[in-house]
Amino acid sequence: MFPLENRTLSMVGLMDFTLSLAFWYLFLGLLNSIYSVSESVMGVALFLTLRLAIPAVFSVPLSVVADREGVDRVLLILLTAFPLLTVLTYLLSGGFSGSKSSHLLTLLTMAFFIEAIITAYDTIKYALPPKLVEAKPEKVNAVFEMTYSVLLIAGPGAATAFIHMENCGLGIVVVLESLAVTALTFLLTKGLIRRSRGIRKDHSIVKELSSAGLEIKGCRTLLYVLITFLAMSAAGAIVNIGLVRVSAHLGGLTLTFIDSYSLVIASIGIGSLTASIIIARTGLMSKLKGGFAILSVTFMAVYPALLGLTLLPSTVKGLGALTILSFFSILNGLGNSFIDVSLTTLIQRNSSESNLAKIITLVSITTSFLGALTTLAAGLLSENITSLLFLSSAIIAATALPLIKLAQPNESLGTRHRK
User: Fold this and answer.
1) pLDDT digits (tens, 9 = 90+) for 2-24
2) Which of 79, 125, 168, 175 is the most exposed place for a label (fewest CB within 10 A)?
3) Which CATH class is domain 7-413?
């Protein structure tokens, strides 16, 4: 049974689930508005590029504050601000209706700020697991992954329903965000989060980030993790644009573009949920296993090629094509989930307490920057997306080597375990 019975894990799960559902609401609302206004893949590509390019805006300074003052305090401030930000985004976007919001620049500007703060939360929250009193980091990671997986399945549908409900849906989302604040407050008041050992506060942000960078450079495991994340980010950016094209291509089988897109994402979520349950029950997420790593890479490498084949003129559209795509989306989600959770756990286990949030942020910024450039390029070259998808498969397959290195005993990597 998945370890949600523990009160600490339950509160973490409640916090992350309710807030992540609100994020789906904001993401799909902005995506629908931008797609309706731009009426092109390029508008979506600009939006996705912004999502990847902006993590440094708030993530860098907040990660420094989190290591100095405590990640719990930073998270509490972020969670308290989200209800107000959600209401403002809804109002300024005209209720997420493309017909009411006629300026693409306005929508992209709003997306920039709201996605920057969302990215900050999604990055810094991974510095929380080592601070929890009654739960091992890998179990908390499993809760985060399960939340992510469940919402890949149910999030798009629920968020779309909230959008159609207009003002009533907005009210529900604000209540969900308030529940997240309540869950974190419970953890704080019950003493379930350890206080950080303060570090010197006269260091500049540049010096503290340099310290985190040197720690990554000095730990071969962290270097291999970074290399793998970089490759996955570049390949994943191409897949994201491919999914938009495939969703539009298969849109005739469902009601709208957003319905088709949500269906594919939900299929990926089923695979991710399956993986999160398996690794939580078997303990596979505590370290990479060579065989499981290669199998996961295989699932992920096949997926972009399949998307490319779906877009070929000779491919027959129909229920059969949609069924095959959904099946391989499940396998892709399973592989992606295993690799992502395993790599995240390796970062937490091989980083010092004083640099953990900054190391997570540096990895996130580096991979997101590459992903942003790749997304923009894929959007500009969307007419050749089929060829790019085959290239994505090759990139993912190339990550097999660093994953094999990570699966080796820590001593052979020169890994330094830090308390």
Assistant:
1) 444 467 888 888 999 999 999 99
2) 168
3) mainly alpha
